[in-house]
Amino acid sequence: MFTSVFLVSTSGRGLERLPKPNNVFVNSTNMRHILRWSPVRFPLGGITYSVQFQGEFERHHKKTWVVISECSRITETWCDVTADISSDVDYDLKVRSQFENITSKWANLSKLFNRKESNLRTPRLTVNVRGGLLTLDVSEISKNINARIYYWEKGAEQQILNISMDHNPFNVNLRSGITYCFQAQLYISEYNKFSYRSDPICETVNKDATSNEIVVIVTTVLLLGVSIVVVSLFLTWKLCCRVQSAWFPKVSAPYFPNFDTLQVDTIKEEDRRKEFCDTVQVLPQSEPLLSQCQPLTGEERSNCKTDTESWTINSVMSGNVSQLQCPMAIQYWKEYQSQQNSEFSKLTNNGTDTTQIFEEFNIR
């Protein structure tokens, strides 16, 4: 109810009832730019803030303001505008408060801001001594900020030396057995801007630790390198063997006996006498083919009793001898015998001597 009454009372009197932020300024340190303002006192609370900026181009040409999305309707009373202020020109920034749909007037900077005005904070220096090697660590080094190191032998402040460094940490090799003092300073070379020097830190460089540590480090590195090389060569060899066996398999040459040195086993005379042989009868080519021979029936066997009418063919089958009768041979022999008988009868009829005829037949 109080909120409704307040909104009704302020709607007729404009936006003056919601105060705008005060004390708007930019706090820039080590090239980080933070816009700050005082909080707005409002009885209902729930105040949010929005920020906009205007560079030289927007101010003189476009006549517009750029909304910073990261800083819209925020409850904090500060905004990081480092990413938006990206060049060495003058920038204007403004902020306003808001409650629900009611907004205040914009509150601008009292003067334009240029990032060249950024302040450099005194750095924090850390010195670590390991033998003859000193490691220097300087805080707040960034892309645009470098550091300068001042060092001297203790008791000889007039001989101050300096080195520049743009990364952390920074290693320095100095003489062993001597105490050195160190100071650090930040600077921006583009703006010729320097910070105050840090408090001096004095450290003594040890004598013997350096050589021992170097020997240990070098030995460890060498052993590690040799191990890596050996393992790599072994794995490469195994891989080559697998590839060779897969793509180029070994093929052995065929075996050819050496006939010059070949020994022939001969059968001795006494072993030859112990051999058992089967008798095989070989027929001349003029005889009938054995493949046409078939076994005789019982009737044919009874009709062919004589030696001249039967042919015995010895066939060796698995070491046993079996006798087969050949009908074609019998028919051939009968024809041959009838032909001889006809010739014999012709000679007899012609008055040829029978004795002479028998001698001719015997000769045949």
TrEMBL record:
One of its GO terms (molecular function) is cytokine receptor activity. It is found in: Membrane. Residues 4-106 form the Fibronectin type-III domain. Keywords: Blood coagulation, Disulfide bond, Glycoprotein, Hemostasis, Lipoprotein, Membrane, Palmitate, Signal, Transmembrane, Transmembrane helix. GO terms for cellular component: plasma membrane. Initiates blood coagulation by forming a complex with circulating factor VII or VIIa. The [TF:VIIa] complex activates factors IX or X by specific limited proteolysis. TF plays a role in normal hemostasis by initiating the cell-surface assembly and propagation of the coagulation protease cascade. Interacts with HSPE; the interaction, inhibited by heparin, promotes the generation of activated factor X and activates coagulation in the presence of activated factor VII. This is Tissue factor. It comes from Scyliorhinus torazame (Cloudy catshark). The lineage of its organism: Eukaryota, Metazoa, Chordata, Craniata, Vertebrata.
